[in-house]
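To start, one record:
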Amino acid sequence: MSEVIQSNTPLEGVQIELQYFPCLEYFGCLLRHDYSILDIDELYRKQTFRNRCMVLTANKVDTLSVPVKHYDSGTLSREIEIDYSQDWKRRHWGCLQSAYGKSPFYEYFAPEFKSVFDQDPQYLVDLNYELLTICLRLLGHKKEVRYKLSGPRIASDKLENLNSRINNKKSTKNYIYYQPVPYYQTFGNGFVENLSIVDLLFNMGPEARGILLQSTISK
């Protein structure tokens, strides 16, 4: 049994799956909780945002998907391997460069993300975790974020389980933690809400955290 951290002040945590370049609501959820537990022992679900994200290009909202190797039903998320036989990295990076290359903060942040792609992580959770770590640092997020089974467990009055509930494709706009607050976007005449966090970071840089907090519904 894992050690329990005692706290005099009641803490509120969230348990959630790892996603690929998650949407704004995902990050708003992490920012609003005292700590976050990334569940890598959940059953992997196909056609979800665990391996895909949405970005705004010159012509449309584009969905980028990381291909994974064949897996059986009942496979855990931490066991899902990335399929490098497909040339997805060139497609993804080309799309990001085309979509955000002229954005105000692309040149500052892009090299860090590119370094993760260049490592060729074997497992999807490792890719997602490394990208998430960079995003949280750029957003100035200093609360605890860790894997479900690593380290001591925190004693809390409430641990909210949001696995498969943030950015669920079947109910994309039934937001739990998000209310659209428009910000500058490189393309389009109208604001597109709740895209991947890279849209906010590349366009707004150090203002991203403030906009994200304004966009986040406090429950």
Observations:
- Residues 1-6 have pLDDT under 50 and may be disordered.
- The chain is about 30% helix and 15% strand.
- Helices lie at 24-32, 88-100, 106-117, 124-138, 197-204, 208-215.
